[in-house]
Structures are given as structure tokens and as C-alpha cells.
Amino acid sequence: MNALSKDMSGPLALFANRLNTLTGAQRQSAAGALARTGLPDRKSEAWKYTALRALGKQDYLQAPAQVDEAAVRALLDGVFQAHPAMAALPRVVFVNGRHAPAFSVAPDDVDLSFFGQNAEFGLQAAPDRDPLVALNTALAEDGLVLRVPAGEDAGHLMLISLGVAQEQPVSFHPRHTVVVEKDAYLRLISVQAGQGTYFHNPVMDIRVEDGATLEHVTLQTEGAQAISLGTLYAHVGHKSVYDSFVLGLGGQLVRHEVHARLASPRGVVHVNGAQRLAGQQVGDITSVITHAASDCISRQTVRNVLDGHARGVFQGKVLVEQVALKTDGYQMNQALLLSPDAEIDAKPELEIYADDVRCSHGATVGALDDDQLFYLRSRGISVQEARQMLIDAFLDEAIALVVDATAQTFCRAVMAARFAQKGEA
Amino acid sequence: MPAVTQTREAVEKLGQSTYKWGFETDIEMDMAPKGLNEDIIRLISSRKEEPEWMLEWRLAAYKTWQAMQEPKWAKVAYPPIDYQDAHYYAAPRKKPGPKSLDEVDPELLRTYEKLGIPLHEQALLAGVEVPEGERMPVAVDAVFDSVSVATTFRKTLEEAGVIFCPISEAVKEHPDLVRKYLGTVVPAGDNFFSALNSAVFTDGSFVYVPKGVRCPMELSTYFRINARNTGQFERTLIVVEEGASVSYLEGCTAPMRDENQLHAAVVELVAMDDASIKYSTVQNWYPGDENGRGGIYNFVTKRGACRGARSKISWTQVETGSAITWKYPSCILQGEGSVGEFYSVAVTNNHQQADTGTKMIHLGRNTRSTIIAKTISAGRSDSTYRGLVRVQPKASGARNFTQCDSLLIGDQCGAHTVPYIESRNMNARIEHEATTSKISEDQLFYCRQRGLSEEDAVGLIVNGFCRDVLKELPMEFAVEAQKLLQISLEGSVG
Amino acid sequence: MSQFLEISGLCAQIDADGQEKQILRGVDLSIPPGEVHVIMGPNGSGKSTLSYVLAGREDYEVTAGTATFHGQDLLAMEPEERAAAGLFLAFQSPIELPGVNNANFLRTAVNAVRRARGQEELDAVAFLKMAREAAKALSMAPDMLKRNVNVGFSGGEKKRNEVLQMTLLQPTFAILDETDSGLDVDALRIVAEGVNRLRAPTFSALVITHHQKLLDYLVPDRIHVMARGRIILSGGPELARQIDQEGYTKFLAEVA
């Protein structure tokens, strides 16, 4: 394996030492795949709009096992600050990719274990096709392994991932597995937050078995210098529902990539999201929704608000296989540009091999609507407040798609706290 | 769903008989030896009696091409092309570029007659074929394999100040114009196929409409590939000066052969202030047989530059032919307030593959673009709409509207939509909509209940589906295109 | 004398696709307090433009003339300042605000205006009580306060919502742009009744219409005829009946 480092140039070189000393067939094979492909650049169609150059600028160390407890406590308080009621929910906390039992509150009714004790890579992630998954596979140390037993309504669970980088930039690659067994129910709220310069590279493998429902909200509030590149696989069974929403607010460079597979008839997938970015932020929401069975429904609404020099990326592919008759797919991506230097790149894509389908997508890009602004101002509302109201309304229409009321309230509270509106109403 | 089942069966039964333009003309040919090298390029250039600068331009393009890779990003699959296994020059053995129609080989005239292309000015002018006499005559440039064999109505056009001639002739007669514009919209090194074309192009049309002139008639070029083992590399250049306008039509067919033939054309359009260019294509190259044997590889680069303020370039295409289509007629919207349009119908059947669409590049303020693309897939075919809308930081007030609709007939085909939307201007507005569906059973039933055969009903519905595009075609072409749609889907469309 | 609303020599143009188009060509108009004035005129005469210019829409560029309101230079004010000063424009086609809750919108507007007028802001409870009562008086469905502003509203519901806003914002001067809504008699009646309820010695209104139906519900003090960007004729209520019977042509010819 020592020869490996020769093949590693660019950002990958930073991980070379760790990749060269792996044990275990799965990890070695992933490292091999990675050495062949390298980390993706913009020549790769899937990374056409998001460059990983920023990753190469830092030397990310393996995150140390010991972290400053006060820093963790402060971050955790920050998570709950906008909506303290959330602190009452059961939670599993990861700090720099490792389970932190001292900060967790164990849930009932679920079967909980950890990747660190028993490495479970799951079946869906494909290291040979996705270099970031390969990197995760090679370097994963810990992760959530959650199983909701058949027929159980497990209520809410928060999965909180905190990155704490103090002197040195660090990287961590948690590997999470979530299985919601037959007819079971789970409301999962993932929160990503942190401080300092770190690289968070999580992979989550989700199975929603027949008749089960997983409502999954991801609140992405990574630290301002963070790079976060997450890949999520969801397998959706017969008559089961994977209803997801991501709210992207933080980080320097963040990609939320979802691969959802409707594997049996009458499944439902929602891959909704909203992001509000400013400064030099880059936020990328990428998804591939595969209809591999008949009579399934997929819905996707993504809204982007981009200010400053921020760049938003949306790539959404809906793939309908030949067997997937009576597919009903809908996708909408909308962007609001608030500054002359903001940019949106969108690629909504339909790839369809079945004839009896109803699929559509739409995309719009524009500025705030002048008619709406004038209408508000003619009612006495100041121009700043009017703009704020319209921006909030634009994003709120996406947040309104969150089915779980608790998670919806949480998202709204976080938004309100971050973008405090003048003269609240 | 019996109706659809029948339709599928009918589509599967489709045979060679449906391609009505597949005959071969027996005519003595002057062919260059197979293969591509500097000597072949020198040979082409000398056969065309080109000036030295043209040869140098070609050789430079050839160098560029040698260093390039064939593009792989399109959603099409084909075995590797052996670029050395084709003739790069083939011309009917008669003096190329006849001065009048009387000099044209009667066998050729018969060929174009069979294709329904009028090369007889007299008959047309006398209004023999269309008694109403209202119809505008169409000037035609007929390109047979590598050379232009006839251009009609040149006198009438000359009187209006319009130049319409084979590009090989323009290189000699109007070198200043050609040098000024050739390769300025599609540089030789733009892509692999444009570089190849720049090195070996043999003929095509040149149009120049001077300031303030509205071209008095539709201009048309009819491309025909006839010879075996040849590629066709035509080059079209249309320059329309300030306040002038032209409508240009292009048609293409080829004989049925078991081998694949390469067609790699380049079309460049230039529109100055307040100029307008309407470019319509009915592309009916031989698509191959029902097993996917033979057919034309249609790898084409078409691009228009709206250089002037308020200039307008409108592309309309009906793509029914070719085994593989790879083309993206585009507009560079540079002039303030300039307008780009793309209207497309792409039909694929049997084993055809099409990856087609457009690029609208908004550079200037208040530029506008409209894209309407209709894709119909049947048989075992695959069809992709691929389009780019890019708004650059200076294009304040830019607007784009895109509508892409796909229709699938049968469950063995694919229809894909891949739009790229990039905006770097907060005052631009982009709207994109796309749908994919099949022909609705309700619509079919409704039509049949009213007495239409299933095939007529499908034909009616498909034509309705394409209406927004077909209505953009000049009248005569619209009728032809409508028939072509029916024939291309014959079996399913009657 | 400092009138209530005083418009003099007002000229305005719009930038349409890179070309400037002159729409108002010297409007003179004065409206005393307590009166309802009507502007009539054929399509394209500049009626709606006048209402937008008075309300401060930025698409229109004022090239000459003045407009004062309560002695203040109206044209120098921002749209929201004009609203706070007591000017209300009832839109011809009210704008939809997806995602903006109607009650929240109304309260934000009411409090912004109250703040500017030096009045105490209303808390949520007090505001909702007031809004519910006002909505009830307009026979509005209770859920209209919960819905998004004008989204999915019928024509009549949109008009009611405009009148509700007018009632809550308590303007001293209302402009009612009804140019194109002539066919919807119910909508007209809603607007007219809203105005009639506000009628007082300190309240004036300018009603823009090009037909007479509205005047069956609203008794005007004065009628102005507008054509080609100017007021070409003014008179008492009888002028409206005259136009109704004879059309505009005669008047336009006389002036030309």
C-alpha cells in the first residue's frame, strides 16, 4: 500500500499518510479506488459547479480524541439557543466524528449502537463511484448505527455533529447507518455545527423498510471556516416514505448530496431544501432520485437566497427506470439573487426510460419582485423591512414543507435568530 | 392499454420502407483517396482552386484537430470512428460549380426532382406548381456530396444586393468578406468536430445581406450525401448587416447504406444592429434501419452571434433523421437588447440517438432568449435535450424562458432533459419548465371515438404537441415537416 | 393657498425597452379636503400612471411639475413615507405575496405607519382584535387573515383585502385605481362602500375609472377627463352622465 502515495496529488495528498496505513479489505479497496480517481475536479460532471480547491489549502489532521469540553458545551448551547425546547428531545452527539456519550441523551424504543465498536459500512454507498464516499470508507472511525424496530413509533431523535478545531485544522469522516424497520416511524433531526477550520465528510446509509416512515430534517449550520461534504443514501421500500429537508446556512463550502432510491412500488420521497448564503459561501444541494419501481412519487422543492459573493449550486436528477411505470415526479428549484456578485448554477435533470410517467421540473432565477416591493412600501413598510419580509416568505414556503411540526418550528426559530428581522411582527 | 400496445407493435414493424429518400444516384464521381492528412487537405484546397490563406487556415485547423479528443459528454453511444477510413472529397465528375442550370448533369437534376427540391427557376417563376401565384419563390443552393451543384435565382438576388453562392466560390469571389467572418463565431478549435470541419470542409453556402436590405425571397440549401464512404463537411456562413434580414432554410437527405457516414458541418451566423436571421432546418439524413444498422452521424456545430444592438437570431429545427445527432444551435447575445430563439422538434425512432439543444449566452444588457424544445422518442431510441442558459455579470435585464417537453411512445425508449442554468446577474430573470409524459389515453380515446384511426389520432396529437415549434417554420417547410413527423413515426403515426 | 392635494404641471415618463415614453404631459389637479374626485378617460390616457406616480413607483421618472400633499413635497418622499403621510393606493390588480401571511403583513404595515405618525404600536392581541372586527365588517371569511397576501384570492376577495388595508391604515387620501375592473360589479361595490365608510371632512379620494358604473355607488364631487397625459376637462357629477351618453370622442375633439 505504500505505493499509494505516489498516485495522490492535490487535496488527496493531505490524507496520504492515513490512507497508506489502512487495514481491512473494505478500507483498502476504497483507498485503492480513491488513488485511481483522486478527488473529483470540475471536469467530473457531478462536480461541474463545485470545486474542491479549498480543501487543498489546509492540512487537515486526524481529529484528536480529546476535545475541550467547554467548547463542546458552548456549541451545544448554541444549537438549542434559538429554540430551547429542542434540548428536551433525546439526542446522540458526535464531536469531531466520535460519539460523545457525556453530551447525549439516550432515546427509548430504538436499538442504538456505534460504528466505532462494530464497523457497519451498509450496502448502498459506492466507494468506486464516489471518491468522497471512498475517502469516508477508508477513514471512518465512528458513527451512529440506529435501528427502529418493526412497528415502533420512535418519536424524535436528534443527531448532532459538532466540529471543534482549535489550533490545527482537523477532518473527520463519520459513517452513520439508520434503519427504520417495517411499519416503524422516526423523526430524525440532524444538526451540523462547529467552530474553527475543519472538514466534515459524513456518509449516511438509510433504509426505510416497507410501510415505514422517516421524516428527516438536516440543519446545516457548520462553522464559518468549515468544509462539509456529506453524502446520504436512502433506500425506500414498499409504501414507505422518506421525507427529507435540508436547511443550509453555515460553512464555507458545503455540499449536501442525496441519493434516494425508490426500490419498491408506492414509495414516496421528498428531497426538499432551502439555503441562505452570503459572503464567500458556496452551498451545493445535489440529488439523484431513482425511481426503480412503479407507482412511486418524488417531490423536490429547493429554494436559494444568495447574497454577497455567495454561490448556490443545485443539481437534481430524477432517473426513471424502465420498470417504474406510473411514476409521478416533480422538481422545482428557485433562486433569488440579492447582490450583483452572487451566482446560481442549476442543473435540474430528467432521465426517463419508462413511458407511462408524469414528470416535470421547473427552475426560476431572479431578483426580488419590484411589484411586490412597491406594494409593501405603498402600505408604509420600509424598503429594508419589505425586502426582509419577501426573502423570509420565499424561504418560508420551503420550510413549510417540513411535515414534522417540531422540526418546522426549530427551522423557523434558527432562521429568525440568524436573520433577526427589524421591527418584528 | 390496447391502443398503446398496438402502437408499439406497429413501431416495431417499422422497416426500411419508411425512409423514402434512400435511393442512390448513379453518377460518376471524382474521389480523393481514403484517409486524412496534410496532402488530402492540400488536394481539397487545390481542387477548390483556393487562395493560399485558405489552405493555411485549413492546415492550422488540422493541427488543432490532431491535438484534440473526440467529446464524450453527450448521451450517445457509437463504436469508435476511424477517421482514416473515409473519403474527404467526393464530387460528381463534371466541372464543379456550373454557371447555369443548363450545365447541371440531368441525372443530378432528376435526383433533386425525386427529392422534391425545385431547381427549375422557370417552372417556379411561372407558378406552374402552385397556381395561386402568391407563393414566394425559394432560391436553392444544392450541395451534392462535397460540392455545390446548382444555385438558383442568383440574378434576382444580385439585383437586391444579396450574395448567395457556394462558399467555395465566395472564397474566390468575396475573399475579404469570407476572411473577415469565417471562424469568428465558431473558431476552428472550438471543438473536435469544428476543427475537423475547418480542415476539410468542401462546400456549403455563403450569404451576405447588405445594410438595410430585406432579402426578397427565402434562401435554401439542400444537402445530399450520395457517395459511399464519404463524410460531408459543409460550411455555411451568413452575414447580415445593419437593418437587414434573411430567412434561410436547410434540408438534408442521404441514401440508405449499411455503413455509418459522418456529417460534421459548421454554420456561423452574424447579425449586426437591428439585423435579423431566421435559420430553419429540416434534418432528414438517413437514420439507419430498424436494427440500428447504418445511418448518418450528424455532429454539427451551429452558432449565431448577435453582435449588433436589437439584432435577432432565430433557430428552428425539425430533426427526424440521422443515426446520431449531436448539435446545439446557439446564440451569443452580445448586442444590447438582442434576441435569441431556439425552436426544436427532435424525433427519434428505432435505434436513433439524439443529443440536441441550444446555448443562450447572455452578454449584453436587456438581451432576451426563448427556448421551446419538443422531444419525441419511440422504438428503442434515446433522445436528450441539453441546453445551457448563461447570464454574465453585465447582462442586466436579461430574460430567458425555456420550455422542454418530452413524449415517449413505447417502453423501450428514453427521453432526457439536461438543462444548465447559470446566472451571475441579479437583475436577470430565468424561467425553465420541463415535462415528460406519454400520449394520454384519454386524448387517444377521444379522437378515436370521433372516428379517427389510432395512427391518425397519434399523428394529430404529436403534431399538436409540436405546434409551437412548427408554426415558426416558413409555410412550405411546415407542411413538409408535418408529413415528415408522421413518416418518421410511421406505424405509430400512420 | 395650501390645498390638501395640489398637482401642477406634472410630467412623467417610463423607460420601455430602452426607449423613453412620455406618459404624463402636464397634469394640473387640486383636490380639497373632504371631496371625492373622479378621473375618467380612454385607455392609455395616463390615468394609472398618475396613480403610480403619486404613490411613488420607481419605474416612472418625473420630468417636470410638482405635487404637494398637506403642503409637503410628495415627489421627494419614499413610497412608505407617502403611506405614513396618509396616502393610500388601492391597486387595480393587487399584488400576490406568496409566503407572506396576511395578518403579519397587515400588522407590519399598520405598526410601521403608526410608528411614523408617532402613535403607539399595537401588540399582536390588540391588532388581531381590530383586524378581525374590520374583516367582519367587510364580510370577509375569517381565514383570510391566515392566508398568504392575495394568493389564491378571488377578484372580490382581493378587493375586500385592499379595502381592509385601507380601513386599518386610516389614510386621509385614497387613490382607487379601478381602470380595468369594470366588468366586476361586485368588486366595484366593495370598493365604493369602503370609500363611503371613510368619508369625512378630512378624507378625500381620487377614483380612477373609465366607465360610470362605479359612480352609481359613489357620489363624486368633481369629474375630470384625462386624455393624452393631461386633464382636458373638469366639471360636476353631470359630466359623467354626459360622457356615458356621448362617449369621449366629442370631448377629445373639442380639445384637439
From TrEMBL, chain B:
Pfam families: SUFBD_core, SufBD_N
SUF system FeS cluster assembly SufBD core domain boundaries: 223-465
An example Gene Ontology biological process: iron-sulfur cluster assembly
InterPro entries: Fe-S_cluster_assembly_SufBD, SUF_FeS_clus_asmbl_SufB, SUF_FeS_clus_asmbl_SufBD_core, SUF_FeS_clus_asmbl_SufBD_sf, SufBD_N
Residue intervals of the SUF system FeS cluster assembly SufBD N-terminal domain: 157-215
Top-rank lineage group of the source organism: Bacteria
Family: Belongs to the iron-sulfur cluster assembly SufBD family.
Name of the protein described by the UniProt record: Fe-S cluster assembly protein SufB
UniProtKB/TrEMBL annotation, chain C:
All residue ranges annotated as the ABC transporter domain in the record: 5-253
One GO molecular-function entry: ATP binding
The UniProt record lists the keyword Nucleotide-binding: yes
Keywords for this protein: ATP-binding, Nucleotide-binding
One Pfam family here: ABC_tran
Transport among keywords: no
InterPro entries named among the record's database cross-references: AAA+_ATPase, ABC_transporter-like_ATP-bd, ABC_transporter-like_CS, FeS-cluster_ATPase_SufC, P-loop_NTPase
Classification via SMART domains: AAA
Family, per entry: Belongs to the ABC transporter superfamily. Ycf16 family.
Protein name: ABC transporter ATP-binding protein
Origin species: Acetobacter syzygii
